[in-house]
Amino acid sequence: MNNITNKVVIVGGGPVGLTLSLILARYNVSSLILEKRKEATPLDESRAITWMPRGLELLNWLGIYEKFHEKGVFRTFHQFRNQHRELLVLPFTTLQTPYSYSLQLPQHETETILEKAALETGLVEIRRGHEVIDIGQTEESVMVKVQYEDESYKIYAPFGVGCDGSKTMVREKLEIEKNWRDFGLNSGVADFELNCDLPKDVSNIILDPERPYGFFYFAPQRWRLIYRINKGEDREKASSFEFVRGLLNEKLPNVKIKRILWVSAFRLGEGQSNKYHKGRWVLAGDSAHAMGPSAGAGMMVGVLGAWRLGWRLALSVNKQHNLTRLLQDYSREQKVGADEIQDNNAIIFRNMAISNPILATGRSIILKFLGYIPLFKKKTIEKDALLNQILPVFGAVDQYVSKSASNLKSYGKWILGKRMPYISNEEGSHPLEQNTTKHMFISIGKYHPKREQKYFKSLCQDSEYPICKEFLHIGADSKYRKDGRDFVFALVRPDQHIVSILKLS
Ligand SMILES: Cc1cc2nc3c(=O)[nH]c(=O)nc-3n(C[C@H](O)[C@H](O)[C@H](O)COP(=O)(O)OP(=O)(O)OC[C@H]3O[C@@H](n4cnc5c(N)ncnc54)[C@H](O)[C@@H]3O)c2cc1C
Q1: pTM score, whole prediction
Q2: DSSP secondary structure code for residue 457 in this structure
Q3: 66 Cα–ligand 1 center, Å
Q4: Which protein residue's CA is at the shortest distance from atom 35 of ligand 1?
Q5: pLDDT of 230 over the 70 cut
Q6: Nearest protein Cα to ligand 1, atom 31
Q7: 2-63+95-179+270-353: which CATH architecture?
Q8: How far from 147 is each of 124, 127, 129, 311, CA to CA, in Å?
Q9: Do residues 286 and 341 lie in contact, with contact meaning Cβ atoms separated by under 8 Å?
Q10: To pair with 131 at 20 to 30 A between CA atoms, which of 40, 314, 395, 479?
């Protein structure tokens, strides 16, 4: 059978594909997910388990945060130790967000909640057991060839997104090259069941040069162990249930392990595609940038990328803007966002590799010292929470250029390319919690309602992008307004990133 559809075709119904379908639905754009698995990722094979604060802000915007809150467990700090003592504690409490914690949930549950929410929108169709085996495109449409049981069929759609994970077929067919950064090490991940009184709201990271490891709680009775597979150890043996049981008995001698659920060994490395789009095809999630598992964050970077992509695709579907320029901006910005996390992960991987006791002692001294610097701790946890990413928006197609206003790089708490500060209005909701592809102006400088209104009108005349009819007028005493001499407006994208800061004279 041959089909022509006006839906966006998403290849892969993992966390990123499902989240993208929900984001598109918020903009009233329908999508079709083709997923080769008959069911969600199995419960006992949980991979991504952590939702960082910025990801929780996204869930809130999607209106499904409560569903995650009901099922998840919470972590409020990271603790780094060596074999002897505590070195550094990083609490989430200093974060400027309603979510001063990370939420843990097995990937199976994440996919189940996302899938149910996507189907409830009435705008998402999910075909499970349908494997995409080939793709193509013309100037007007994309083609996907799908295998379902013994039959194959083709679909033609306006756009296609490859959310098909790190072994992506979409990227290969598009002939987009991937770079692989290898850290020369293997690591193991094991999930297990445990009855114990160990603290559950902390991630324990033990920087033992003989074998660094970490363990933490991620679901009722469920814990995860991450450990280095040492040089010379057989990878298969070092990721057997027997090996993990021995390791757990050694590291946690006073607790009773009930059951080991899943163990896997991974090469420590990271993949990065040269670009994230070609014609009408886009890559998102692990297919664009595969993160190393031991440091997590792959799902977070992927879903935040889907947020950056969603409004751009919606504008393209509605033929409101030049597709190529929009996708170029998505590619450029998301690549910088993913690179930042990959560089961060590289630090973690290099630390995992340290086996020299002298180097390890030096590291302990440095970490202990850093623990006395509150600003270091605040900045590090903000980075971990993915709240302070600064994207390269300069020259983006939606950046505002006008003769009557000058562009600033920052103004008080407002920084170009960063997510807008998390302001809540009187009802407790975020001003950008709306389902619109429109950008929004926010007055952040001098307080003078009449003149602000006048300046806002003049800004709207020059704008090429769809803009919300009203600007956001934050209170005179708000800490988010810097009430100096100048009238200043921030232009914020539907994904809450600041694309322009304009000073009017
Ligand atoms: C052990 C481990 C622990 C991790 N922990 C974390 C963590 O705590 N936090 C975090 O943020 N990230 C973590 N990650 C990374 C995270 O799992 C991935 O980044 C995330 O799953 C990527 O989501 P995705 O939707 O892009 O890809 P995937 O989850 O890989 O989903 C891709 C989907 O596409 C489907 N598919 C593939 N090919 C086709 C095809 N041809 N046709 C149809 N369907 C297809 C697959 O069946 C799959 O369902 C971890 C990874 C591992 C391995």
Answers
A1: 0.95
A2: H
A3: 23
A4: 12
A5: yes
A6: 14
A7: 3-Layer(bba) Sandwich (3.50)
A8: 20, 11, 8, 30
A9: no
A10: 314
Query: Ligand 1 centre and the CA of 306: distance in Å?
Result: 14
CA distances from 306 to 21, 112, 177, 286, 299 (A): 9, 18, 21, 11, 10
Distance (angstroms) between ligand 1 centre and the Cα of 41 equals 9
CA-closest residue to ligand 1 atom 3: 47
Q: Residue 289 Cα, ligand 1 centroid: separation in angstroms?
A: 11
Band (1; pLDDT cuts 50, 70, 90): low
Distance 423 CA to ligand 1 centre (A): 32
Where in the chain are the domains?
2-63+95-179+270-353, 405-504
CATH number for the region 405-504 comes to 3.40.30
Mean pLDDT of the chain: 92
- Among 9, 37, 263, 299, name the best residue to mutate to test ligand 1's pocket (greatest count of ligand atoms within 8 A of Cβ): 299
What pLDDT, in 10s, does the model give residues 93-111? 999 899 999 999 999 999 9
Q: Do domains 2-63+95-179+270-353 and 405-504 have the same CATH topology?
A: no
